[in-house]
């Protein structure tokens, strides 16, 4: 009994230390989120402008709709297992998917940036979801059972692509903060939308509309006083300096 007691005591202390550290990190995230939310408060996007920029899906039976389907059928025949595997790397709408573009694991290294972008994307998400519900376009694999998607099926509408909106908006906002990494960030932003077509979960026109909407939403955010105030936040500026400190030659190769 006596020989085991010190080991158990040490293990207990370590467990308590880890639990305390996790609690402190969780509290930090909560505080930063609360700090970031006011930065995006009262931000209003021009919903009509976004809807006009997104446009309308191809009319049923039109040549444009037939072209949409033909692209998906061609991609399904020729996509390789290796290509499919890379699409899963950009499945989640999470800031970490842009880590390869900046050479740092964004979720851990930049809590203020993460919380701020999450807050600024809230009105963007609301805008595209409203358009998606209004348009009610059926997903391609539901309308055409011969299509076999290589990413998880979803039950929401198809137009516009929410992933394309998120990836394009996030890429533009990050590029505004880190112009040194603009090309790499845009590459991830484009790839995140293109994967939705490659795997047959969206029509090409869904992704094109999402990219247009995402780009304009980012422009509206960047022009807002809320974004300008966010850019001046000392905590954010410190995080951006850490990201800029990563030398270009240390950046990993981009996914193709």
UniProtKB/TrEMBL annotation:
Leader sequence residues: 1-36
Gene Ontology molecular function: any one: acid phosphatase activity
Classification via InterPro entries: Acid_Pase_classA_bac, PAP2/HPO, PAP2/HPO_sf
Keyword vocabulary terms for this entry: Hydrolase, Signal
Keyword match Hydrolase: yes
EC annotation from Swiss-Prot or TrEMBL: 3.1.3.2
Catalytic activity: a phosphate monoester + H2O = an alcohol + phosphate
Segments forming domain Phosphatidic acid phosphatase type 2/haloperoxidase: 115-222
Superkingdom per UniProt: Bacteria
Cellular component GO terms, alphabetical: outer membrane-bounded periplasmic space
UniProt record similarity statement: Belongs to the class A bacterial acid phosphatase family.
Protein name per the record: Acid phosphatase
């Amino acid at each position: 009994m006596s020989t085991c007691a010190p080991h158990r005591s040490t293990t207990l202390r370590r467990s308590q230390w880890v639990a305390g550290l996790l609690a402190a990190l969780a509290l930090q995230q909560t505080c930063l989120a609360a700090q970031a939310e006011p930065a995006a408060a009262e931000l209003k996007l021009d919903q009509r402008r976004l809807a006009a920029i997104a446009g309308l899906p191809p009319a049923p039976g039109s040549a444009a709709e037939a072209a949409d389907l033909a692209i998906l059928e061609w991609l399904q025949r020729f996509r390789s297992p290796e290509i499919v595997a890379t699409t899963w790397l950009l499945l989640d709408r999470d800031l970490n998917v842009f880590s390869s573009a900046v050479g740092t694991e964004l979720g851990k290294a930049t809590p203020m940036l993460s919380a701020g972008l999450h807050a600024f994307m809230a009105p963007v998400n609301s805008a595209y979801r409203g358009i998606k519900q209004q348009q009610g376009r059926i997903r391609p694999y539901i309308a055409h059972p011969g299509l076999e998607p290589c990413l998880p099926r979803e039950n929401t509408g198809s137009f516009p692509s929410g992933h394309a909106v998120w990836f394009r908006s996030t890429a533009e906002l990050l590029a505004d903060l880190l112009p040194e990494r603009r090309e790499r960030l845009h590459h991830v932003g484009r790839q995140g939308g293109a994967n939705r077509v490659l795997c047959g979960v969206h029509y090409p026109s869904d992704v094109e509309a999402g990219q247009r909407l995402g780009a304009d939403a980012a422009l509206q955010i960047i022009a807002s006083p809320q974004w300008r105030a966010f850019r001046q936040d000392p905590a954010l500026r410190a995080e951006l300096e850490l990201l800029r400190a990563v030398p270009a030659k240390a950046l990993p190769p981009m996914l193709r």
